[in-house]
Amino acid sequence: MRLATTILAASLAAGLPLVGPLPLAAPALAQSAAQPTAQPEVDETTLTEFAPAEQLPTDPLAFAIAAQLDSADSMMLDAALNAGSEEETELSVRDFYQQRLFQPLWLSEDGLNPFAKELLVALENAGEHALDPEDYDPDRLAQLAFNAAGLADLAALDVALSSTYVTYASHLAAGRVKPNRVNKSLKLFPLAPDPVTLLDLVDSSESFTEVLEGLSPNTPNYDRLKDRLADYRAKQAAGGFTAVPSGPVLKPGMTDDRLEALRARMIEEDLLAPGSHSGDVYDGALLAAVKLFQERHGLEVDGIIGKNTLVEINVPIAARIEQMALNMERRRWMPDDLGERYVFINLADQNLKVVDNDKTVHTTRVVVGKPYHATPVFSDQITYAEINPFWTVPFSIATKEYLPQLQRNPGALAAKNIRIFSGNREISPYSVDWNGVSRRNFSYTLRQDPGPRNALGRIKFMFPNKYSIYIHDTPSKALFSRAQRSFSHGCIRAENPFDLGEVLLARDGWSKDRLIAARDTKKRRIVKLKEPIPVHLTYLTAWVNKDGSTHFRRDVYGRDKVLKTALTTNRRTDL
Question: Cβ distance 352 to 538 under 8 Å?
């Protein structure tokens, strides 16, 4: 048991206030009613600069708190707290105390008040939210409380509790690190409430538990992951996962000594009932369990224990716990309200779902950007669909992929229905000396006509953004059969785009049949949505579904590693 917990438990059991030793603590608190001559020293000139006369402290403990807040250490603390906001703010812990005439927030005549004791327990249990208790140093707070002997000590204790609470509450509400410090492309701006708002919540609430519950993400996805994190920690304490030795590929019906370990591993995943048939034959029950494991880890669902499946089976439980913790941090970056009706794309899972009133009404596999053309994480709104779109070739693709083809054969792009424009005027590819053209002086526009060979397929869904990312059809359907689908230049290719279109455009009077009829006209057509639909591009490598199934995915973009480094080396308060 940690020191803070030990001190708290012992004090509560003895019926003692957790400010002491008792002979000194009670008189110190009582001094707040004494005459002004007992007041600690404080620079009143400085004090009046930030507090009008009617808001100056009127008793010794209040003067002590004002002096504590006026210290250099406290000012540095305020700067650190404010650095957690996206924009600088003048609000600070000092402002809060000034509003309450510098009266203590966490102390009563009996010592620490109930909220303070609950805060110490919450800090000890911060790991339940995948936060690190060491970030909040609850042992130091408990020692301050236990050793408080005079007004200065009590003032330091109250201010320390306020400052620590603000840090913890900020982490709980918006994460320990800012997303754009992990990756500049992460255009997410989770703002923790300012310190005064956070402290006002404590001051005005009748339940500290409700305060903390209101700050943590209020979503079933976060709660399910939090609960599963606790389950995995219990499994870790019980011995962790069984390792399956390497060896030849295992297929259904085979006999192998390693199958006993494989059965044990599937039982640990709750995919196989304890006491299932034991032996060295790869039977049907084990096959069903392995297929479920493969499905939940984004693998080829074939029941064959090859290299990729064996690697995932043998990921240590500590690594899975870390993976869940990283994704709880990502969940804290996301808004609680994603919209009544929205599109949710998990880039790590390479799947898209449409949610309407908390119910998933459509899912489809997608292809996302290659690791070196990683699709960014952001949110926007789908505002229109385009049937039979043109494809304006991006500059990077035009110069890197198509320019070399033109240099070898000026007519090479004609077979792909790609035309060349100089300004708004179409030109013949034979009118240009392509060997004299390079990336530096390339001034042409390449545009592919609508049709079945168009790179965007026959329909696209637009949510205009600075990344030029959108959802579209594709003529390259074979890629959707692969378990790992990161092959694009950044845009999102949907497997069944006309089914998706029917779901997104149904309220605008468009059925799948009507969309296909418009496609078959071969004419370009814009369909505007009367109500834009939010679209969220996310990157989650661990989650728990409503049915309780736990899912993990490969860190295809290496973002787990980057986030782990940021959480280890940086804290939200020093960014």
Answer: no
